[in-house]
Design brief:
Number of helices: 16
Strand content: 15-25%
Strand order of the largest sheet: 3-2-1-4-5-6
Shape: globular
Largest sheet: 6 strands, parallel
CATH topology of the largest domain: Rossmann fold
Radius of gyration: 23 Å
Number of strands: 22
CATH class of the largest domain: Alpha Beta
Structural class: alpha/beta
CATH superfamily of the largest domain: NAD(P)-binding Rossmann-like Domain
CATH architecture of the largest domain: 3-Layer(aba) Sandwich
Number of domains: 3
C-alpha cells in the first residue's frame, strides 16, 4: 500500500516510523528540509520538501498513485486544502485529516464529498484525552481500550501482591467470579509473553491483559488487584488542548479538579472556559506551589504540557510529595522506555501510540472496525468483522478450537447482533442495537456471520496472517 503523509511533526513522523516497519510504501512531506533529512537517515522512506497545500508538491509526493493520504500538518486549513486537492485532481481513494479546532469539528456536514472531501477526521488531542480519562476512572490500570462501540473493554494492569489471584492458577478466576464471564488474553512477565493457559499462575508484577463486557470490568479488576474506590481529586499540569479537554470531561463526571498553567494569558482563557476547575497560574514543578495546593491529597496528578522534560520533572516531584498516582504525557519513545524502567512515574502516556490505532483501522486489510496498539507498538488488539459462510470463510461456522489461528494470536471476545437486514446490505457501521450480546470466547464458541471478533496479537509480524484468516473466499457473493 502506498501512503503519503503530510507533516513530519510528532504525529506524522511516529506514524511513518510505525508503518515503515510494516513495509508500507511511505512518502512524507514537510516544509522543514532538515527534519525530513533526519527522518530519511533513520527510516526507509521518501521525502518531499514543500507546502502540503500545493498541487505540485502533492504530485511530487506521488499522490496520484497513492492509496491513502494522511494530512497531519499543524494547520487544519492546510490539511483540509490538501485533502480537497487530492480528491479533485488526483482522485486519492482515502483521505484522513487531523482537525483540531472544534469550530470545524462541530460542523461535520462541511466534511463531505461535495464540500471538503475528507473520509476520516482524527483529533489526536481528543483521542489522548479519552485515553487518559479511562485510566483515571479505573485506578491501577495501565491501558483501558474500547471495542464494539464501548460494549467491550480490554484492560491491562500489573498484578500486585495481595490480589486474590496472585499466586493462583488462571482457572480459579471462574471460582472468584462465578457470575461474570471474562478471559485473560495475554500475560507479560519481564517483557516476555506467557501463554495464558488454565494452569498458568499469575505472579506479582505480571502485566495482565483481560477482556470482558464493559459493565463487568470493575468486578474483574477487584479480583486481580486490591483496588480502592476511584479517587475524585485530580491535578492537571498544562492548560493546552489536552489539559483543557481533560478538565472539562472530569468536571462533567464530578471530579474535583485543579489545573496549573505557566502562561498567564492562557491561564485566564482556560479559566473562562471551565466552570468548576480551579485554574492556577504557576509552574507545575514549583514545590512550594504543589504543597500549597495540597498535592498530597491528590488521587491523580497528570502532566500534559507540550514539554516532555517538564512533564517528567513535575510528575516525579508530585509523586515524591505524596500524589497517589502520577501520569506524564511523553512524546519521545526513548523517554517512555526510560520512565518504564525507572518506575517513579506510574504511567507514561504516548500520544503516538494512543493515536496510531485510529489510523491502523483504515490500513488493515479486511473489514476492520477498530485497532489498538499495545505495549508501545509491539502488540495489537484488532476488532474484525466476520463475513461469508462455512464454505467461503476460514472462521465462520467454526468453533474457536478448530480455527487455524497463527501462534501468538488469541480470540478474546465476540459481539453478536441479532439478525438485521441492513447488515446484509453492508450497512454494518450503523452501530449496535440494544440486543447486541457480548460473548467471551471459549474453545467451543462458534463464530457466526457479521460477528465482531476481537483478536489479541502479541507479535505484529503475524498481522498479515490474521488478515488472511478473515478474508472471504471467491465463493462468497
Amino acid at each position: 500500500m502506498k501512503i503519503v503523509i503530510l507533516g513530519a511533526g510528532q504525529v506524522g513522523s511516529s506514524v511513518a516510523a510505525s508503518l515503515v516497519r510494516e513495509n508500507y510504501d511511505i512518502t512524507i512531506v514537510d516544509t522543514d528540509a532538515q527534519k525530513l533529512a533526519d527522518l530519511q537517515d533513520r527510516l526507509d522512506l521518501r521525502t518531499v520538501t514543500g507546502s502540503a497545500a500545493f498541487p505540485q508538491t502533492l504530485r511530487a509526493a506521488g499522490t496520484e498513485d497513492a492509496d491513502l493520504l494522511l494530512a497531519v500538518t499543524s494547520s487544519d486549513e492546510v490539511n483540509m486544502v490538501a485533502c480537497a486537492i487530492a480528491s479533485s485532481i488526483f482522485h486519492t481513494p482515502t483521505k484522513i485529516a487531523r482537525i483540531r479546532a472544534v469550530e470545524y469539528t462541530q460542523h461535520a456536514d462541511i466534511f463531505s464529498q461535495d464540500v471538503i472531501p475528507i473520509d476520516v477526521i482524527i483529533s489526536p488531542e481528543q483521542i489522548v484525552t479519552d485515553y487518559i480519562l479511562r485510566l483515571i476512572e479505573y485506578p491501577g490500570t495501565l491501558q483501558v481500550l474500547d471495542f464494539a462501540d464501548g460494549l467491550v473493554q480490554l484492560v491491562a494492569l500489573r498484578a500486585a501482591e495481595g490480589g486474590p489471584l496472585v499466586g493462583k492458577q488462571l482457572r480459579t478466576l471462574r471460582e472468584h467470579l462465578p457470575n461474570i464471564d471474562t478471559r485473560v488474553a495475554a500475560i507479560y512477565r519481564r517483557d516476555g509473553a506467557i501463554p495464558p493457559e488454565g494452569d498458568t499462575v499469575i505472579e506479582d508484577g505480571d502485566e495482565v491483559f483481560f477482556i470482558a463486557a464493559t459493565e463487568n470490568i470493575p468486578a474483574v479488576l477487584a479480583e486481580l488487584r486490591r483496588l480502592g474506590k476511584a479517587g475524585k481529586r485530580v491535578m492537571i499540569a498544562g492548560g493546552g488542548n489536552i489539559g483543557r479537554r481533560l478538565a472539562e470531561a472530569l468536571e462533567k463526571r464530578g471530579y474535583h479538579t485543579k489545573l496549573i498553567e505557566h502562561n498567564v494569558k492562557r491561564a485566564h482563557q482556560v479559566a473562562e472556559l471551565l466552570d468548576r476547575t480551579v485554574v492556577l497560574h504557576g509552574d507545575a514543578a514549583d514545590e512550594e506551589l504543589l504543597i500549597k495546593e495540597d498535592i498530597d491529597d491528590a488521587d491523580v496528578f497528570c502532566a500534559v504540557t507540550s514539554d516532555d522534560e517538564a512533564n517528567i520533572m513535575s510528575s516525579m516531584l508530585a509523586k515524591r510529595l505524596g500524589a497517589k498516582r502520577v501520569m506524564a504525557l511523553i512524546n519521545r519513545a526513548a523517554y517512555v522506555d526510560l520512565i518504564q524502567s525507572v518506575g517513579n512515574i506510574d504511567i507514561a502516556v504516548s500520544p503516538q501510540q494512543a493515536t496510531i490505532g485510529s489510523l491502523l483501522t483504515h490500513l488493515r486489510r479486511g473489514d476492520v472496525a477498530a485497532v489498538h496498539s499495545l505495549r508501545r507498538g509491539a502488540a495489537e488488539a484488532i476488532e474484525l468483522i466476520a463475513h461469508g459462510d462455512a464454505s467461503s470463510s476460514k472462521v465462520v461456522g467454526k468453533r474457536i478450537e478448530d480455527i487455524q489461528s497463527p501462534k501468538g494470536a488469541a480470540i478474546g471476545a465476540i459481539v453478536r447482533q441479532a439478525h438485521r437486514p441492513e447488515l446484509e446490505r453492508g450497512e454494518e457501521r450503523a452501530g449496535f442495537g440494544p440486543d447486541a450480546r457480548v460473548i467471551i470466547a471459549h474453545h467451543d464458541t462458534v463464530i457466526e456471520p457479521n460477528d465482531h471478533v476481537i483478536v489479541f496479537v502479541n507479535d505484529k509480524k503475524i498481522i498479515p496472517d490474521i488478515e488472511k484468516l478473515f478474508q472471504v473466499g471467491f465463493a462468497f457473493i
